[in-house]
Amino acid sequence: MSLSLFDAEPLPPEVIDDGVVLLRGFAAQQGPQWIEAVQSIQAQAGFRAMQVPGGKTMSVAISNCGDWGWVSDLQGYRYSAVDPQSGRSWPAMPAFLRQQAVEAAALAGYAGFAPDACLINRYEIGARMGLHRDQDEADFAAPIVSVSLGLPCTFLWGGLTRSQPARRLQLTHGDVLVFGGASRLVYHGVQPLKSGWHELLGHERWNLTFRMAKAGYSVT
Ligand code: MD6
Ligand code: FE
After folding, report:
1. Whose CA is nearest to atom 1 of ligand 1?
2. Of 16, 74, 131, 182, most Cβ neighbours within 10 A?
3. Is 7 among the domain residues?
4. Interval 66-114: pLDDT, tens
5. Which residue segment(s) compose the domain that 182 sits in?
6. What residues form DSSP beta bridges with 17?
7. Is any atom of ligand 1 closer than 6 Å to the C-beta of 193?
8. 134-150: per-residue pLDDT in tens?
9. Which of 154, 157, 209 is the best mutation target for the ligand 1 pocket, counting ligand atoms within 8 Å of the beta carbon and taking the most?
10. Is the whole-model pTM more than 0.70?
11. Distance CA 76, CA 36 (A)
12. Can you give the CATH number for the domain in which 58 is found?
């Protein structure tokens, strides 16, 4: 029997590392709703290339929703309450996205996750993300919930130091990686997107990362 995109069952949680859980297929059944939500955000705050402090331009295009959005320019990285392109607040986080992210976090053992930011990355063929760690958030006790849509990618899962060898992890449409605990500051990245075609997103991969940018995390 072959399963299509729309009837794929989510698989049991898989522990990747200390504090890191992969929920394969969590978002697959509702893929079209995820995509619709991102398109509505995109209509208000379009994907754009960002410069890194060194002066280069990222190959991944970025947008945000929620109270805070991650931005990068020659001055550095930070969370901003306004979209520097429009001067307006970022689009509100759609309730569907928030609910799904909170549910995924809870399934992974992180009750009380309350995201105030969602960074959205768009990869075209060849786009990549170098090894980095996410350290611009206020409280590293809070996990990050990462959702992959569209074309598959090879995700690099390193260690707490940059020089530690990285494992390769395939992330495909609908996979959700919940990333926290002792591994919250692990180095990670994405290899150049290989050419391919996805029935919902064509030549693209989208990644959404839900974060607690400014809020403190408590499990109550
Ligand atoms: C991506 N993700 O999957 C890039 N960061 O395209 C990340 O950089 C990331 O997936 C923090 C936590 C989870 C992630
Ligand atoms: Fe990251």
Report:
1. 207
2. 16
3. no
4. 999 999 999 999 999 999 999 999 999 999 999 999 999 999 999 999 9
5. 14-211
6. 20
7. no
8. 999 999 999 999 999 99
9. 209
10. yes
11. 31
12. 2.60.120.590
